[in-house]
Q: What sequence folds into this?
């Protein structure tokens, strides 16, 4: 061996600047940068749809809970009845019923104010058989408590009837479920588009790294080794893109939350707050967005691995 | 003598074209040294690719290390390739890796830890005279340095069979002579060597080497003069 060393320029004993596990697929390429941009945009869109679904789900739960906790008793007096006595009796019956937090009757003035938009101001309602309303707040909405209240009213205050808003709550539930289903469908479409983009990018990178794949093959690298290298490469790109997308998603929802707090007392703000609550995600919501990013990164790595393995099968 | 590689009536055609090589019947013995020669375009590189099993013959049988290549599974093929070193005419080094990383590539591909092969790679690089170029990347190496790095990469797994495609084609006669001595040293250490070249002067320096002459799609073997 020494004989051969002497034949070549003397080694100066320089040690290599060894880089542990340096990527075998070059980290920076045009295709790689394009994939980072695509993944970032897709992740951002996925975060938006996931966040919107979470907001609507949370808001719809609040709507339904509010609507179901509040029930209304109507007292319909007959011609000779003393309506105030009947209302006081119904309030007393309702207050004693199980699960009732409070029962607040609308006064004559309140009722007049309620009807004012339709009948105009200054109408004497004593001439009309206008029902009086009692707003009952339940401690918790349960079918048993409502049945108990209904039974107590039928027994002790038959002039009063109970409206439990269940029809409204059902409609709200259906609407909320439809919005969530739409958001989930959009999320699924974004993921399919992302997977397709990753597929194209992987094949592009494979074509661009054909020489590397061949050399690895000829030096005895197994398909699993080569696929792992590509998986690591794409998972890294996916992680970078997903981090950008999730950061943009965080920024969007934090900004939206700040703006909705700022607009909270404007007329439009009230309506938005009624639809989406405070328009802010809680900790679990942000964790869900981070999970979307992690899933996108893993999906990028997994898809590229399976595509590379399939393509390697064709190589001799 | 044990045959590492045996061609039996091997022929190869691309698509529906004529056979580019045909009726190949020869073997490569363990610890042997041979030149594969013939005019440019005669099919030397095709033959080397058949030996490396990167091309499948359209007829005939290639037995490698005693196994029929047509019956090999993908993982078996990978295992066999680890027993073969290949020096490509165009070096085929990875430009984004250092010389050290390029030479260590086959060991890394085998799943060995860097700590386990580091000393081995450094020793080999010093042996081929690249001890002071270990951290350099291929684009800044000279033609001769690239050639030696490619040879070192082929040797690092101590192959039983070394295939070299025009390994002296890009270097001056002095360096060609030194590289040839490197191959002879390897042969002495027990590796079967096949060097594809059309350099008659180079072949004349090693009278003992067998010559496989490719012409008209066929191979004719001429034994060397015994030492």
A:
């Amino acid at each position: 061996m020494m004989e051969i060393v002497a034949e070549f320029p003397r080694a100066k004993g320089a040690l290599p600047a060894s880089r542990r596990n340096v990527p075998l697929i070059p980290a920076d390429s045009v295709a790689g940068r394009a994939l980072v941009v695509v993944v970032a945009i897709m992740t951002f869109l996925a975060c938006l749809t996931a966040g919107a679904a979470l907001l609507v789900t949370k808001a719809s739960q609040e709507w339904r809970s509010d609507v179901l906790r509040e029930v209304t008793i109507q007292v319909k007096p007959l011609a000779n009845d003393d309506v105030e006595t009947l209302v006081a009796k119904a309030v007393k019956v309702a207050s004693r019923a199980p699960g009732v937090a409070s029962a607040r009757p609308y006064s004559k003035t309140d009722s007049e104010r309620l009807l004012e938009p339709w009948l105009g101001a200054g109408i004497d309602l004593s001439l009309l058989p206008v029902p009086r309303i009692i707003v009952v707040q339940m401690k918790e909405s349960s079918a048993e408590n409502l049945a108990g209240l209904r039974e107590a009213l039928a027994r002790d205050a038959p002039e009063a009837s109970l409206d439990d808003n269940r029809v409204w709550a059902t409609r709200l539930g259906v609407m909320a479920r439809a919005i969530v289903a739409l958001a989930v469908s959009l999320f699924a479409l974004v993921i399919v588009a992302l997977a397709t983009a990753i597929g194209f990018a992987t094949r592009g990178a494979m074509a661009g790294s054909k020489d590397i794949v061949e050399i690895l093959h000829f030096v005895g690298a197994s398909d699993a080794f080569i696929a792992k290298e590509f998986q690591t490469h794409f998972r890294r790109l996916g992680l970078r893109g997903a981090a950008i997308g999730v950061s943009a998603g965080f920024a969007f929802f934090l900004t939206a939350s700040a703006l909705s707090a700022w607009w909270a007392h404007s007329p439009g703000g009230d309506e938005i707050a009624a639809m989406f609550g405070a328009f802010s995600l809680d900790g679990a919501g942000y964790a869900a967005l981070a999970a979307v990013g992690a899933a996108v990164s893993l999906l990028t790595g997994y898809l590229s691995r399976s595509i590379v393995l399939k393509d390697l099968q064709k190589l001799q | 003598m044990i045959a590492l590689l045996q061609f039996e009536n091997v022929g190869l055609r691309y698509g529906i074209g004529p056979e580019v090589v045909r009726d190949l019947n020869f073997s490569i013995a363990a610890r042997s040294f041979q030149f594969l020669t013939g005019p440019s375009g005669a099919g030397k590189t095709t033959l080397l690719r058949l030996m490396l099993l990167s091309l499948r013959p359209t007829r005939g049988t290639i037995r490698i290390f005693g196994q029929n290549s047509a019956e090999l599974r993908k993982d078996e093929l990978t295992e066999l390739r680890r027993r073969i070193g290949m020096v490509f005419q165009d070096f085929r080094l990875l430009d984004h890796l250092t010389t050290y990383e390029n030479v260590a590539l086959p060991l890394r591909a085998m799943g060995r830890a860097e700590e386990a092969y580091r000393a081995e790679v450094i020793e080999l690089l010093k042996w081929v005279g690249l001890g002071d170029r270990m951290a350099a990347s291929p684009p800044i190496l000279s033609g001769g340095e690239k050639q030696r790095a490619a040879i070192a990469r082929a040797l690092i797994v101590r192959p039983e069979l070394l295939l070299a495609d025009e390994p002296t084609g890009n270097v001056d006669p002095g360096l060609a002579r030194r590289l040839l001595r490197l191959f002879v040293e390897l042969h002495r250490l027990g590796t079967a060597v096949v060097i594809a070249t059309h350099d008659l002067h180079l072949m004349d320096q090693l009278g003992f080497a067998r010559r496989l002459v490719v012409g008209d799609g066929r191979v004719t073997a001429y034994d060397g003069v015994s030492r």
Confidence is low (pLDDT under 50) at residues 10-17 of chain A. The beta strands of chain A are 70-75, 100-105, 132-138, 160-163. The two ends of chain A are 35 Å apart (CA to CA). The first strand of chain A starts at residue 70 and ends at 75.
